[in-house]
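Help! Submission page says 'invalid entity' but I think these are all valid:
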Amino acid sequence: MTTHDPQMIKGVLGLLLLQLLDEGDGYGYGIVTRLQENGFEDLAEGTVYPALARLEAAGHLDSYLLRSAAGPARKYYRITAGGRTELIRARRDWDALVERVRLLTPTQLTAQTGA
Amino acid sequence: MSAYEWFRIRRTMLAYDYWLDVEGVTGRARKDLRAELVGNLTDATAAVGYPAARRSLGSVRTLATAAAPDRDSRPRWVVGSYAAIVVFAIGAFAALGLITAWADGVMAAGGGQGLWIGHPFFLPWVEITVRQGETLQILATFNPWSVVVPPLVAFLIGSRIWRLATRQSSPTPAAQVR
């Protein structure tokens, strides 16, 4: 099982959720299981649900209820046009951050300074 | 899902509903949030069992806080109700104790049979009549407002009633069921 720094995950959770919902609508627990299947086994429902609520409040997601044969109706989230714009921005920022971190590795620093 | 798990989910939902109310989430929005969580918790329980599902959920108070986008703008009716109940209970017990102590003091000082009428020091608006005959009779007379006003004031302050005048509009509830 892969473990992640919880603080780092919190920082990119919005990006993860928008990315996931850009591929298809999902409901709370379904989203959690999709994230866990994609290598984020340590992500808990208690972290994901508030993040979904925040994204919805910010207008990046909207929601609808869908009846479920297994139990109560499920609240499905889907990404909005504003959410897609936010996803593009967040992904660009993330790529830039990764690139900067990569450039700061000792090997790269050594190569750049010629030491 | 077993009946025990069903019961435990409902118990968790009661706690969640309480904290949503404390956070000032209104009836319709609260119902939607409750429905969403009961659906998710039911699915999680079916998949991994209630203990793991509940553990993964974390604190329902934290969840409720996160789910209340403008929680500081609405009255908190539950908090107000609890404040009123606490003030009423404390007042009732204190009055009972003071009245009993006053009557006991009068009887100890006077002795024998007779009729005493007076007002205890801490409850000047209460008139106490003690009649000592073959049987002991203690009667306390007071203005009903003295019972109603303190809990009412506690309710108004506890619920932050003034937020009704300054509250923002409710968040849009979830769209219709498909």
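Support: the input was valid. A stray whitespace character was the problem, and the output above is from the cleaned input. Chain A has five helices and three strands.
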